[in-house]
Amino acid sequence: MTAGLAWGRRYLMCPPSYFGVLYEINPWMHREVTVDRDRAREQWEALRAALTAAGAVVETMEPEAPVPDLVFTANAGVVNGGQFVPSRFRHPERQPETEHDIAWFATRGYEIAPLPDDVSQEGAGDALPFGAVLLGGYRWRSDAASHAYLSALTGAAVRSIELVDERLYHLDLTFCPLDERRAIVAPTGWDRYGWRVVEALVPEPLVLEAEEALAFCANSVVVGRRVVMPSCPPRVGRQLEAWGFEVEECAMGEFLKAGGGCRCLTLALDVELGPGPGPAL
Predict the structure, then answer these.
(1) What is the pLDDT of residues 125-146, one digit of tens each?
(2) Does residue 147 have an active-site annotation?
(3) What is the 3-state secondary structure (H, E, C) of 244-281?
(4) In 3D, which of 258, 236, 259 has the Cα closest to residue 249?
(5) Active-site residue (options: 217, 232, 250, 264)
(6) Helix (H, G, I), strand (E, B) or coil at 239
(7) Which of 170, 176, 232, 262 is labelled catalytic?
(8) Does the annotation mark 264 as catalytic?
(9) pTM score
């Protein structure tokens, strides 16, 4: 059995007090769909409980009424030790989130390292580490040009992957690192070059079929050998268990109305990508 991930034991989450589908910026979002906030809170609490039971520490950010998607903390930015690279959101509806994200990290001693104004990049939703490499998704929400800046700021080598299915609009809907050799991958969401990049990088991929990808199986959170998933088809579960992982399903029905799952609701705070500053105080 290989060692688990070097990160994934500290997460930032934001309660869904004001969560709702108030605008449409991806194919899952429809303003006529009503979110049951009580049910959303139950699902959010169940996810937090699953992560803490698996051994993770969960920190929280105060929700804010004008920004319903603040709950999706994965999009806040990229964490590198004590460095925080805040997102540059493409859609005006989400841009007000950035000031809240920066304030949370700044008050905790993180160095704020902004991207240029003229590029879009949506945090860990489109940037996930695997070993010494940072995989960067682009097209629907992030620009390929942002990857050179991410590399310069963090010191990490960035490998670019073009996302080709607008339903899988962020990288974290198509890629979930499991340990130093394995990852859940959804190549139906990438161009052919992107699949070749992942094949060269991941020795043992668990390749999702199209319908499994659209059930957000890759939008999972890994804590040690525990994989917390919004859904787990039998085929996927059998492979994970054969590799020595424990699977826990957490219903995400209310958040799926906005195109979000388990990973979208969390931001790993213990990622260290490159030689940047030391851990935050």
Answers:
(1) 999 999 989 999 999 999 999 9
(2) no
(3) CCEEEECCCHHHHCCCCCCHHHCEECCCCCCCCCCCCC
(4) 236
(5) 264
(6) helix
(7) 170
(8) yes
(9) 0.95
